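Q: Could you write out the predicted structure for this multi-component system? I'm mainly interested in how the pieces pack against one another.
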Amino acid sequence: MIFSFDLLINGIVSGILIGGFYAAVTCGVSLSFGILDIVNIAQPAFIILGSYVCYILNADFGIDPIVTSIIMLPAFYALGAAIYQVYYVAFERHGQESLRGLAFFFGLLFITEVTLVLYFGVDYRYVQAAYIGPTWHFGFIDLPMRLLVPCLVSLLLIAVLQLILTRSFVGRAIMAVAQDQLALRLMAIDPVRIKRIAFAISIATASLAGAFLIIIQPVEPSVGREYIGRVFAICVLGGMGSLPGTVIAAMLIGIVESLTATFYGPSWAPAVSFGFLLLTLAVRPAGLLGR
Amino acid sequence: MRSLPFLLISLALGAAAFAGAMSLGNDYIFFAGYVVLQYVVLSTAWNILGGYCGYVNFGSAAFFALGAYSTVAVYQSVEAYEFPHVVPVPILILVGGVVSGIIGLGMGYLTLRLRGAFFAIATLALAVVLQTLVVNWDFVGGSRGAYIIRPETIGPIGAYVRYLALLMLLLAIGSLNVARLIERSRLGYGFATIRDDEQAAEAAGVPTLRLKLIATTISGALMGMAGAPFPYYIGYLQPSSTFGLDYAVNSIAMPLIGGTTSWVGPLIGTLLLGSLQQYVTVTISSAANLLVVGGLLVFFVVLAPNGIIGLFHKYLQRKPDDFVGRRRIDPEAPAGTAAPASDAASGSAP
């Protein structure tokens, strides 16, 4: 009995750590899908792109992946702004975003993924850093550093994002654009500009999430596909655009997946989080902390 | 054109195409043709839900795989009695259609309240749940995959792949006829009201709930039927490729590139994109063919939102408009905006 108790506690701990990482992966979608109603289904592909940038700089110059991802934030921000501009001109301005916008991002997902496959092949890539490998032990609890570091940095990232959203002028304008665009325009703020900033931030988070991903596990181009459903599961479960809700939902999914993997085998883990999503959608579409 | 003459004409065209392919005497054309025809069925099925009702289904691969795996399940249970190949493929197609249709109905029930992006995400989730179930189901091979041993030849046609291509041709003709029939019936008009404004349709007394269930069932069943002969075609079935996003992206890209409002769109899109993919797979690589799909999909949704059919309609309608515009007002200004302005000017002058 005491043995399975150990397993249970360790499962929960690693679930929380993984959950922190999931929160970083999801916060971009919480911004774009939750607040702006842009169904950016290609977010995981941008995360993989971030992983590969980290891999290149790590393999060639030995730069720490997290440092790389922070340096690359402006580049991802610019990429996000450019994508939003295309999206706005082609779809949002005509009010045709729902079906065609989805297809547009689905296409982007494939273009990014296949381009990576053509350049790097389908081999698994990994990075090297001092904190990958060692594990801290507290009694019977194991804290692998490769999970702990991404989890902490990710929580920091979400705290910063939450501060930006609630305290800064632009952040409040982003929250407002979700509620009433006309009112924003009457306040002499350009809603399109605000949305572009918000979407660009959401893509910028993919840079950090990509670094976490390649720290946690080896990456190949199609790994991102596993995350599409999981990311949206967490986003919907957390209540669409609420960052605290995203963190709670991410931890919940992390724990459930980790316990399922521990007690029933890893092959069942994906179905559990997606089952969660289907249940949430069927029973309480507003999510845990819905707006 | 009425539906019976259309059915006869499409059958005649199909027979002519098959006879033409037979006379070439090269089996490759059947291998490639099978894949293209399979996508005709998939994209037509997707379009019944996605194009007519406006509900985007990302789970096409799941329904396709359900059809394929129901074939494997039947094969495995028959093999236990040591008389393989007693179940003819047409019956397997029916079985696959029934299984996928039931799951489609279930998906419809589960996602009744969901609209737009939420529906799309739910279908994606459903695909992953089904894949996990299949991966953990050892009877159909689990994650190791399953082998199907098919006969080398069959009766008077020759190579077995010819027989499979013939079945897929009939299935494609059937699904095109079904889609065309739906389009011109009360059902199709009901679907269109859901696509244009679901709330208004409901307020006007359209049974949107029942119509959506019908659409998910028909669409799912057709996709399952497209998947049922697949194990016999490929010989070795494995979950990660059968549930692959490739089927999902193709069955979305083909109708969107062709045009989603009528049965012609998916057909044009598939013939174009499917043949192009076969060409790219052979000449460059199979990774590049996904790049082509993704690129064309983005290109078309950005620049030609109504697909090839939309371009065609625009071309037909553009001419008289331009003519009127050139004769009456300044060619630089669009006809619609300039006309009232000139009226207002002439009105205020006296």
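A: Regarding packing and overall arrangement: Chain B touches chain A at residues 50, 54, 56, 58, 110-111, 113-114, 116-118, 120-122, 124-126, 128-129, 131-133, 135-136, 143, 245, 249, 252-253, 256, 287-288, 290-291, 293-295, 297-298, 301-303, 305 (CB under 8 Å).
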